[in-house]
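Replying to the earlier thread about multi-chain prediction with a worked example.

Input:
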Amino acid sequence: MGTEKSGRCCSGAADSTVEKAAPDVKRVTGEITFANKWDHFIARWGYDRFGHRVEPGLYSIGAPNPESPVFVTANYTLSFDALRSSIEGMDAYILVLETRGINVWCAAGKGTFGTDELVGWIEAVNLKDVVSHRRLILPQLGAPGVAAHVVKKRSGFKVEYGPVLASDVPEYMKTGKATAEMRKVKFPARDRFVLIPVELAHAAPIVLVVSVLMFIAGGWLAFSGVVAAAFAGLVLFPLLLPSLPFYDFSVKGFILGFLAAIPFAIAAYFGGADIWSRSGWAAFYLLFIPSVTAYLSLNFTGSTTFTSQTGVKKEIYAMLQRCSGCL
Amino acid sequence: MFDVSIANTLEYFPEKCVNCDMCIAVCPHEVFAPGDRVVTLARPEACMECGACAVNCPTDAIELESGVGCASALIWQAIKGGDEPACCGGEEKKVSCCC
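Result:
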């Protein structure tokens, strides 16, 4: 591939149009290899947190020509791989922005998947010379960071928001529009489930330390009490989220933690020793375990798809008020 | 009851709306719905303050405060002071923050 603007020639017609494009258009396929899957798996466990990325810039999939669509995504491998595997079989360009290994929605919220970033990359890859149209297809969840009308003004390219999920892109391209369903973000069990490993990985050191300390203070029962509180907050809570009563996460978590604490309180109360020690420990479990679970549950607000910053702030304030009320 | 967290700062000014429907296209929770002359605010309580609508409204008919919503970052900010809670990936070196 060279940069000279060759005229019509050669038998490889597709090659000659690609030659006119920016010289460093990287080719990809839609294939997801075992290495890709392993990368996704360890990313989900929080390993090498910001290292799951691809080079930003312009990619081609299939054999695109100047009329082919241009999709835009983040340089996080899970985002990039979701898109290219969904458009396998298409001839298209993929413009990858530098989001430092962060997914589209989070990067959009922070501004790295943003107007400036997009306009900058359009220029950097000479997109105007690569395609003859002026259309970009962005994931809908890039919208918090991208002002479509500003991108149009500054770059000449019109931003179209495609569906939320890459898997809906083929349907979107076929019909030319996104249905209301495609534009909704839900939070089904599977999506909640895949968030658990990274929470566990991050909490593991602290849980270990605290449970060992509790073992010294109260033996195996205290040790397992800590583990149970962590398990309730980090594993059960995400799974049971929609089934738990009330709206506030800390309240849901407290209820879940209280249920988890009951067997420990019972075991402590009937566990020999004098009445003061037994009652003390029982009361401790009934207070400590739900508090830990409530705290962990409140922290899960940051991993959901529907909590608001204002709501979380109010809940923190309310929780502190409730806590100081009972103390 | 126990629903203090259903709260947001979303404000819609229908007099500024030009019915371009961008807010409807970008909203992940169907907060807005098509209307006759202007867009209607169908489900304000569902707003999560992502900001997509306000950013994409060409006539500034929508205002809200958006930002990092993760509890640990907010608690940490409340303790440390400062105006912007850090978020993971905001700066390369600051990997810790909420997580």
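Residues 68-99 of chain B form one domain.

Feel free to reuse this layout for your own posts.
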